[in-house]
Amino acid sequence: MAVGFSRENLPSCWQEFNHINRYWDKNTGLPTAKILPGEFYVTMHNEAITTVLGSCISACIRDPGSGLGGMNHFMLPVQGDNTDFEGLSSAARYGNFAMEQMINDILRNGGRREKLEIKIFGGGKVMRGMMDVGKRNIAFAKEYIEVEKLNLVAEDVGGMYPRKVVYFPKTGKVLIKKLYSKHNSTIEDRDENYFSRISKQEVAGDVELFD
Fold first, then answer.
1. Average pLDDT of every residue of the chain
2. Is 64 a domain residue?
3. What family is it from (predicted)?
4. Residue 74 gets which letter from DSSP?
5. CA distance 162 to 138
6. Could you tell me where the beta strands, DSSP code E, fall in the chain?
7. Taking Cα atoms as reference points, which of 185, 63, 73, 84 lies closest to residue 121?
8. What's the CA gap between 40 and 29, in Å, rounded?
9. For the chain, first and last CA: distance in Å?
10. CATH number, residue 65
11. Cβ contacts of residue 187 below 8 Å, gap of 6+?
């Protein structure tokens, strides 16, 4: 196990991910990227990717043959008076963007679309006094995977509690810890603030899936 790792001597990442917080995790013995709502990270190294999910969804996607993989962290906004999720509606464009950006990065760097395996996590009902945003996020993720004919191999979604997720793209292994404590409202506050912010902004342009 390496000791005294810093951001400067971690394995190099692609330039577009320089803003992602990366550190050496002494528990896993691996470089680890921590992603926040609205972020994603893709790697070809033996790294871990971690996040904490409340109402949001993370899709963990990899090509087992090339070893390329990544994780995103997203939530659907509400656009106008549309508070129901049915099919790939206009509100789902944000989810499309989150999924396709990451998939495109994997494909551009040597991954094969037909080999991709996907695991989805999150979508808990943790936001106070609001619609079940987590349920909408789960519905979107599953319909997206079905429409795009991608391979969903595992899921842990729904429920009443946040989750900490650690993903290892090289092997596909996932560690999940349910956060049962109700004494800390940090995740609920974060999700509500993020939901409010993205519901007031437009997604810039459409993204086409790179083939």
1. 82
2. yes
3. Belongs to the CheD family.
4. B
5. 14
6. 21-25, 30-34, 40-43, 48-53, 57-63, 68-72, 117-122, 151-157, 163-168, 173-178
7. 73
8. 22
9. 38
10. 3.30.1330.200
11. 52, 54, 126, 162, 179
Q: Is residue 201 part of a domain?
A: no
Would residue 14 count as lying in a domain?
A: no
199/209 Cα distance (integer angstroms): 24
Partners of 50 in the β-ladder:
34, 166
Rounded Cα gap, residues 170 and 156, in angstroms: 20
Q: Which of 70, 61, 66, 10 is nearest to 40 (CA)?
A: 70
The predicted model gives 132-143 an average pLDDT of 90
| Residue 33 to residues 45, 133, 148, 160, Cα–Cα distance (Å) | 11, 26, 27, 26
Query: What are the pLDDT digits (tens) for 123-133?
Result: 998 876 656 88
Beta pairing, strands 151-157 & 163-168: unpaired
Determine if residue 66 is left, alpha or beta; phi over 0 gives left, psi from -120 to 50 gives alpha, anything else beta.
alpha
As a whole number of angstroms, the distance between CA 85 and CA 78 comes to 9
At 132 the pLDDT is 81
Sole residue written with tokens 């990451």: 102
User: Shortest CA distance to 9 belongs to which of 27, 24, 28?
Assistant: 24
Residue 17, helix vs strand vs coil: helix
Owning domain of residue 114 = 23-166+177-196
Count of structural domains, the chain: 1
Structural domain contains residue 210: no
Tokens, residue 106:
């994997």
